[in-house]
């Protein structure tokens, strides 16, 4: 998948529009009362990338990405500048005992009653950001005590970190890591306008989170 964060960050900054979408089923009764049923346990995220006037060389890079995305068909990776890291306090999983794997999560608003958990996939590799993983208060070393699948966000303990490669009851796994957001374009069109030779206007490009 294409990681487009450096393209956005280094060339255009982070001037983009960000939205969160929830899905609630609303039932209105004849009495005037209403019932709200939560359909989605977590929000879906949207962005609008404001590509306006570009030089030809930057247009060519953006055109390549849009072409490889094939409209809304292909998924690529995006580093959300508003939400790309999980702190140790936001990723805490208590073992029920016997697990040989642990799925990385992020808990949003962990101290509040409205908190929610999200499984995180597409983890930034250790050469970009080395994750800190602990069992209780003991730091574990990737490659020695565990392996981490960057695509799925699953820790495998069978390399010998825990006794017999498995967690025991009430052991707490915490992790600090960074992640990408899988996204796709939100429409199939690609539009550009030539302003002058070598200078083009690309307009806004909407992208939407893909929940895996």
Brief summary:
With 212 residues, the protein is mainly beta.
Can you characterise this structure?
The longest helix has 14 residues. The protein is mostly beta strands and 212 residues long. The strands form six sheets. It has a five-stranded antiparallel sheet with strand order 1-4-20-17-6, with no helix packed on it. Strands 7, 8, 12, 13 and 16 form a five-stranded antiparallel sheet that branches. Strands 5-19-18 form a three-stranded antiparallel sheet. The chain is flat. The protein is 10% helix and 39% strand. It folds into two domains: 103 residues, no CATH class; 95 residues, no CATH class. Strand 12 and strand 13 form a beta hairpin.
SSE topology:
Layout: H1 5-12, E1 17-21, E2 24-28, E3 34-38, E4 44-50, E5 53-55, H2 56-69, E6 76-78, E7 85-86, E8 92-94, E9 101-103, E10 105-108, E11 116-119, E12 132-135, E13 138-140, E14 147-149, E15 154-156, E16 172-178, E17 181-185, E18 193-196, E19 199-201, E20 204-209
Antiparallel strand pairs: 1-4, 2-3, 4-20, 5-19, 6-17, 7-16, 8-16, 9-15, 10-11, 12-13, 12-16, 14-15, 17-20, 18-19
């Amino acid at each position: 998948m294409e990681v487009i964060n450096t393209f956005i960050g280094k060339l255009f900054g982070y001037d983009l529009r960000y939205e969160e979408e929830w899905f609630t089923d609303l039932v209105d009764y004849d009495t005037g009362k209403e019932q709200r049923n939560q359909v989605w346990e977590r929000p879906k995220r949207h962005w609008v990338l404001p590509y306006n006037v570009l030089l030809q060389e930057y247009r060519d890079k953006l055109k390549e990405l849009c072409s490889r995305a094939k409209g809304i068909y292909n998924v690529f990776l995006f580093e959300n500048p508003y939400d790309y890291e999980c702190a140790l306090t936001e990723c805490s999983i208590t073992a029920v005992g016997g697990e040989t794997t642990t799925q990385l999560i992020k808990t949003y608003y962990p101290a509040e009653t409205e908190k929610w958990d999200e499984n995180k996939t597409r983890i930034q590799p250790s050469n970009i950001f080395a994750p800190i993983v602990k069992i209780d208060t003991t730091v574990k070393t990737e490659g020695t005590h565990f392996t981490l699948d960057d695509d799925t966000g699953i820790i495998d303990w069978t390399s010998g970190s825990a006794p017999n490669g498995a967690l025991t009851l009430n052991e707490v796994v915490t992790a600090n890591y960074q992640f990408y957001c899988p996204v796709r374009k939100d429409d199939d069109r690609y539009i550009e306008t030539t302003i002058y030779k070598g200078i083009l206007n690309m307009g806004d490009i909407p992208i939407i989170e893909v929940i895996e």
